Structure to design on (459 residues):
C-alpha cells in the first residue's frame, strides 16, 4: 500500500510502480531512516502528538525492524514498497497497528530523505577518511623502505631530473592529505539537520529542531526549509571530492603501470594482484591498477550526472532528485574499494633499485647541474643552459653519459669548467643540492618521513 492512496481512485500501472520505486537502491538508508524516525518520535512527544508510552512502543518496534534489517537487509527487496521510508512505515504499522500511523505527523518524505542522505554521507565520509589515512601510512612506510632508491623524475614522460622513490611516494601523500582536508571541510557543512523542514515550508508542530538535530548527531538545524529539502550541494561536493580522489588514484595507477612495464622495469608487482594472459604465457598484467584507472570514469560520470540533474531544477523537491542516490552509492563504494586496493598493491611492490638507478644515470638528467655549475662560475643562466645543451648533444654523439666526458671536452665548450665539474654532477650531488623546502634532498625527505611517521603514529 502506498503512503498516499486517499486521493486516488485508480490503480498504479505496474510498470509505473516499478519505474517510480527507489527501494532497490535506497534500502541501504534503512538504518539512517530508523535513527531519524526514533529521534522524530521523541520530538512528537514534546509536541504532544504521542504519549511517552506510545513513543516507547514505536521506538522499540523501530529498533526491532533495525535488527531485522541488520540480519538480512536484502529481505526488504522482496516487498513492493515504493521506497525505504514507505517500507519502514508499513512495517511499523504491521508491528504496532494504527499507532504506527501517527509517526509521520508533521514530517514529509522530503525532509526525511534529505536527513537520511546526510546521515549516510556523514558515515561514509568517516569510513573514507579511515581508508585514506590507511593508504597514507602505506605511502610513508614504502617511502621509508626506499628512501635511498634513486630514479628518474619525468616531465612530458621524458627523464627530467633525478628523484628518489621515497620522494615519489611523498608526492602522493600530499594529494591524500588534501583529500582528507576536503572531506573534513565538508563534514562541517553537512552537519546541519534538515529534519523538521516538512515538505518545504517547515513543520506546523511545536518541535525544537536544534534539540532534534543534536539527538541525531548533527550540530544544529537548517535555517530555511525551502532550501533544506532542495539542497543536494553535499552530494555534488562529495562526488566532486570522490572524483578528485579517484583522479589521484588514477595517476598513481598510471605511474605504477609504467614503472612496472618491461620498458621501465623499476618495480615488480606482486603475483597476488596481477593476472595472466589466456594466450601469452609470459604475461603478468597489472589488472588491479588498470581497474583503478578505469573506475575513475564512472565516478566522474556520477558527478556530471548529479550536476545535470540539479541544473535549473525548480525549488523545492522534485522526483528528479531520486536520481541522486545510485551514482553516489556506487561512487563511494568505488572510491573506498580503490583506496583499499591501492594499499594492497603498494604494500606488495618490489622496487628494483638497480634499474631505477641505471635509468637515472642514463638520462642526462644532470644537465641542469652543469648549467648551475656554470652560473656559479659567473656565466648567466641562459648562456649556461645553452652550453650544457651542447654538451648533452656531444655526449649523445659519443654515446656517453655526461659524467664520462673528458675534462678536455668539457673545456672546449667553456673554459671556466674545472675538475670539480665531476663531483658537481653526480646523482648524489643533484639530489643533495635540492635541500630547500619541498626539495628532493635525502635529508629533507628523511625529515619529512619522520614527521609523517609521528603524525600517523607509525612506529
Ligand atoms: N524516494 C524518494 C527520493 O529518493 C523519497 C522522497 C519522496 N518524496 C516525494 N515527495 N515523493 O527522493
Amino acid at each position: 500500500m502506498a503512503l498516499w492512496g486517499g486521493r486516488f481512485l485508480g490503480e498504479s500501472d505496474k510498470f509505473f510502480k516499478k519505474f517510480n520505486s527507489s527501494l532497490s537502491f535506497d534500502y541501504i538508508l534503512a538504518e539512517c531512516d530508523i535513527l531519524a524516525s526514533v529521534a522524530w518520535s521523541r520530538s512528537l512527544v514534546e509536541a504532544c502528538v504521542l504519549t511517552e508510552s506510545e513513543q516507547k512502543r514505536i521506538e522499540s518496534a523501530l529498533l526491532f525492524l533495525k535488527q531485522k534489517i541488520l540480519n538480512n537487509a536484502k529481505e526488504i527487496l522482496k516487498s513492493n514498497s515504493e521506497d525505504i521510508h514507505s517500507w519502514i512505515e508499513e512495517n511499523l504499522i504491521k508491528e504496532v497497528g494504527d499507532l504506527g500511523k501517527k509517526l509521520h505527523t508533521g514530517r514529509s518524505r522530503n525532509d526525511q530523505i534529505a536527513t537520511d542522505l546526510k546521515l549516510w554521507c556523514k558515515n561514509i565520509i568517516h569510513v573514507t577518511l579511515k581508508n585514506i589515512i590507511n593508504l597514507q601510512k602505506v605511502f610513508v612506510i614504502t617511502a621509508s623502505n626506499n628512501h635511498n632508491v634513486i630514479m628518474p623524475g619525468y616531465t612530458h614522460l621524458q627523464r627530467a631530473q633525478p628523484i628518489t622513490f621515497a620522494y615519489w611516494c611523498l608526492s602522493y601523500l600530499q594529494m591524500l592529505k588534501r583529500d582528507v582536508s576536503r572531506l573534513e571541510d565538508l563534514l562541517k557543512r553537512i552537519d546541519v539537520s534538515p529534519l523538521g523542514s516538512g515538505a518545504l515550508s517547515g513543520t506546523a508542530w511545536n518541535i525544537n529542531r536544534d534539540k532534534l538535530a543534536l539527538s541525531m548527531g548533527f550540530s544544529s538545524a537548517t535555517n530555511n526549509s525551502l532550501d533544506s529539502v532542495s539542497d543536494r550541494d553535499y552530494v555534488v561536493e562529495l562526488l566532486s571530492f570522490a572524483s578528485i580522489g579517484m583522479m589521484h588514484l588514477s595517476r598513481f595507477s598510471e605511474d605504477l603501470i609504467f614503472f612496472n612495464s618491461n620498458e621501465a622495469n623499476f618495480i615488480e608487482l606482486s603475483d597476488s594482484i596481477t593476472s595472466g594472459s589466456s594466450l601469452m604465457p609470459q604475461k603478468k598484467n597489472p589488472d588491479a591498477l588498470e581497474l583503478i584507472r578505469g573506475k575513475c570514469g564512472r565516478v566522474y560520470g556520477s558527478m556530471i550526472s548529479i550536476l545535470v540533474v540539479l541544473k535549473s531544477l525548480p525549488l523545492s523537491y522534485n522526483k528528479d532528485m531520486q536520481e541522486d542516490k545510485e551514482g553516489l552509492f556506487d561512487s563511494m563504494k568505488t572510491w573506498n574499494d580503490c583506496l583499499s586496493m591501492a594499499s594492497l598493491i603498494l604494500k606488495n611492490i618490489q622496487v628494483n633499485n638497480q634499474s631505477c638507478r641505471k635509468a637515472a644515470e642514463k638520462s642526462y638528467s644532470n644537465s641542469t647541474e652543469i648549467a648551475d655549475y656554470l652560473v656559479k662560475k659567473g656565466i648567466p643562466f641562459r648562456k649556461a643552459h645553452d652550453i650544457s645543451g651542447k654538451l648533452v648533444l656531444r655526449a649523445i654523439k659519443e654515446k656517453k653519459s655526461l659524467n664520462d666526458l673528458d675534462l678536455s671536452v668539457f673545456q672546449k665548450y667553456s673554459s671556466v669548467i674545472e675538475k670539480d665539474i665531476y663531483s658537481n654532477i653526480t646523482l648524489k650531488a643533484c639530489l643533495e643540492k635540492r635541500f630547500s623546502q619541498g626539495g628532493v634532498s635525502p635529508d629533507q625527505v628523511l625529515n619529512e618521513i619522520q614527521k609523517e611517521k609521528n603524525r600517523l603514529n607509525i612506529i
About this structure: The longest strand covers residues 158-164. The chain is about 60% helix and 5% strand. The chain has three domains: 13-105, 110-357, 364-437. The pocket of arginine is lined by residues 22, 26, 83, 109-110, 113, 317, 319, 321-322 (CB under 6 Å).
